[in-house]
Write a structure and sequence with these properties.
With 345 residues, the protein is an alpha/beta fold. The protein has a domain of 146 residues: 3-Layer(aba) Sandwich (Rossmann fold), CATH 3.40.50.1100. Helices cover 30% and strands 18% of the residues. The strands form five sheets. The protein has a four-stranded parallel beta sheet with strand order 10-9-8-11. The protein has a three-stranded antiparallel beta sheet with strand order 2-1-3, with no helix packed on it. The chain is globular and about 50 Å long.
Length: 345
Amino acid sequence: MAFKPIKYKLVTVGTGRKSEDTGWVLSDPESGAPSLVRAIYDDDRFSPDDSLDGLYRYACWLPIQRTLRHSSAPVTYKSKGLAAKLGLKNLYITFSGYWPKKGVKMMTCSFKETEAYSVCARFPKKSDKILVVQSAGNTARAFAQVCSDNNIPIVICIPHDNIHDLWFRKPLKSCVKVIATPAGTDYFDAISLGDKICKNPRYLAEGGAKNIARRDGMGTTILSAVEKIGKIPDAYFQAVGSGTGAIAAWENAQRLEKDGRFGKNKMKVFACQNTPYTIMYDSWKAGSRELLPLSAETSRRNAEVILAKVLSNRKPPYSIAGGLYDTLKASGGDMFKVSNEEIVY
């Protein structure tokens, strides 16, 4: 049986204006200020579909046109060891990676596969465009693998210093091209390179956090958790570079509250950054919606120092309407920071 796309509309977070998705909408041209757009699904009931493989069992809340091969859904389990260490009785871990015994087989070992399989399934099969993705590492690996397995043309821009993160079990197909910015550059430079490429009409910007498919794909983590727990979690924790995953979790928590079967959405969102790359942490603690100034030189130096190099986004979706600032405010959440020494410990 052929996959039947889910029906949905778009809403501009900053203005509340509703509109149709005309194909690859990343923003509302009628919005006077920067704002994310969200998908509003016609069916507001959370209805996993076991007839679909992998991630696509959550297709009820994915803005996709088709399904792709080899996807895997996140798996949630109740923690014992870590819970005991922290003195918690109801700690659940949503695992996105490669752990066959738990039933999760993301071949790149990264939860970024959740967004890659959603974004690429939104991408029209017969499109004559070439997708462009910018990444600090994990996203690049996920999109490269998914596009290679499904014959989707893509150009991936990464910082040269992160190239060691692009490991694969087998050679990629020629539909995948990787371009690296020079040594000593950071994720922001990779973003700038991708933006230049997209000035050519042959190429199509994936859109990052602005892409509803990326956020709703990442939001399957909270769907997995709710299936296991039976209710909206009390708190959600994530290490962040852009904060897109945390935004996505909050968006799905709101959908789950509207469903009505999983309790009130009292989920506090907690995000963490690796010091000294703490642009969002610093801005949040200063009470600032706008990101505090960060020079290119300082950004590159800080990106070189941190152990969690994938958390080095100089231009995260923090200030934009519906972004991380709004998510933290609405959820009553907070931000933390950890040093390299604490990570190793």
